Amino acid sequence: MNCKKSMSAMGKSQKMNLGDIPAERIQVYYYNDDNAQFDYELYKKIQIEANIAKIDKTSINVDDIKILCGWLNKNINPLLHGLCHGTRAGIEQKLFTEYTGAEVLGTDISPTASQFPNTIQHDFHDVKDEWVNFFDFIFSNSYDHSYNLEYCINQWIRCLRVGGVCILEHADGHRNAKKTDPLGILYEDLCHLLKTWGQDFFSIKKILNIPLPPTENLTTSFRFDNFRYIIIEKMKPMPF
Description:
The chain has helices spanning 3-10, 40-53, 62-75, 91-100, 149-158, 187-198, and strands at residues 27-28, 81-85, 103-108, 119-121, 135-140, 160-170, 183-184, 202-210, 227-234. With 240 residues, it is α/β, with parallel strands linked by helices.
């Protein structure tokens, strides 16, 4: 099978390879049209509406990003270019730039992205040609907004240089799917799928457990329990 063609086809659907995980363990909200086919325009419409409704809300905590940046500064060299996906008002890229010194770009599917520094309107399932094998790190806590996580993760890994890392935040808020957040997945299942999909191209390098700080130290609008950061390393170039 041609990997490039199969991945392209995957991106136009919500079908994922779940390996040996029973399908009922992974929650997926399906954006179907009248013919029970994936309706991308419906997906995009709902995501933009959700962005606008929550434009002043964030779950990003400064102390968490400081911890992640400390790890990046110690373990990733060179550390020059970063990419943050699904950033809404652009807080992530601002903090990563401040604490690593890297040049960090943020993306969001909503046209509101243009209102914020170093942010572009972009569907994070898509890859710009100049991004392939380029970034030293990618960060997102918004992968639960993906309509096809397998396709999404593979696309993100394509954008990393070999030795670069993709950091995924997982907390209790990622466990349940809904109209605006089409993926609901347990931490254990997410790790298992990453191992299944990675083969020998990418693998989990490190898990950082972040303790829940005192409420008065939070810089977030909302916060979930059981924060973990899954750090995925790219081992070699993707075949597509």
